[in-house]
Amino acid sequence: WDQVRPLFLPLMNSLKTLHENGIVHGGISVDTLFVGRDGKVRIADFLIPAARNARSQMTSQLYPGFAAVEQYRGEDITPATDIYGFAATMFRTLTGNTPPDSKLRLESDNLSFPRSIAEKMPRSVLVAMANALQVEATDRTPTMAEFKNDLQAAESYVNDGSGKPKKAQATKGSNKKYTLFAALATAVLLAIIGIIVYFSFFSGSDEDVSSAPSLPTNSVESYHTI
C-alpha cells in the first residue's frame, strides 16, 4: 500500500474535478492508466458514454474485471462507475489478480484480498476498497472525494485477515467503561463547582473573617444547598 498510495491518490483529485464537470471516463483499467517517466499515473482513452455501454448501438469498449455491472445492463454511467474501475485497478495492482467480472459477481461474489496481503494493509483501506467494489452502484461509494477520504480515514475497523473487513462494534464492556468514565468525570466536575462556590462565599482576609458576624445554621445550610 505504501507503494500504491502515492501512485493512485493524486489521480483521484483529477477524476474528482472531471466528475464535478460532468465527465465520466467509464473505462478505467490497467489498459487506460499509465505510469510516466516522472512516476505519475496518467489516464487515457476518453470516449463518449455510448462507447462504454454494452447495449448501445456503438461498438462498446469495456474491460472485463474492471467494468461495472451497470455498463453491461445499458444503464447510465456515473462517477460510481469510475470508482468501481479505479478500485478494481488498485486491487489488481495490490494483488496481481484481476477481479472477477462484475456480471459473474452478481451470481457468486467471492472477491476478497488474499490473507497474506490483507494482513499487511491498513484496515481503513480494506474497508474503503470493499465499499468501492460493491457490485451494485447503489451500494457503492458514490463520489471520488468520499472514496479518497475513506482511504485516508483513521483505522476504525477490524482486520481479521480474511480480506473482508468488518466494522468494529462496541462491546458491552467498552460501554460500561465509558459509562463509568462519564460518571466519574461528572462527579469531578460537580466537586470542582462545589469548591468554587464554597470559596466564593467563605474565602477572604483574616480581618474580614474575624469581623464578620456569625451566620445562623440554616443560612449555612442554604449556602451549601446552592
Descriptors for this entry?
mainly alpha, two-stranded antiparallel ribbon, 226 residues
Describe the structure.
The protein is mainly α. The protein contains ten helices and four strands; from the N terminus they run αββααααααββααα. A two-stranded antiparallel sheet has the order 1-2. Strands 3-4 form a two-stranded antiparallel ribbon. Strand 3 and strand 4 (166-167) form a beta hairpin. Helix 6 (123-132) runs antiparallel to helix 7 (144-151). The chain starts with a helix and ends with a helix. The relative contact order is 0.10. Mean pLDDT is 77; it is low at 155-159, 163-179 and 205-226.
Radius of gyration: 30 Å
Based on helices, strands and strand pairing, what is the structural class? mainly alpha
Strand order of the largest sheet: 1-2
Low-confidence stretches: 155-159, 163-179, 205-226
Separation of the first and last Cα atoms: 60 Å
What is the overall number of helices?
A: 10
Encode the helix/strand succession as letters.
Answer: HEEHHHHHHEEHHH
Average of the residue pLDDT scores: 77
How would a crystallographer describe the biggest sheet?
2 strands, antiparallel
In one word, what is the shape? elongated
- Proportion in β-strands: under 5%
Share of residues in helices: 40-55%
- Number of separate strands: 4
What's the arrangement of secondary structure elements?
Blueprint: H1 5-20, E1 33-35, E2 41-43, H2 69-73, H3 79-95, H4 102-107, H5 115-118, H6 123-132, H7 144-151, E3 157-158, E4 166-167, H8 172-202, H9 206-211, H10 217-225
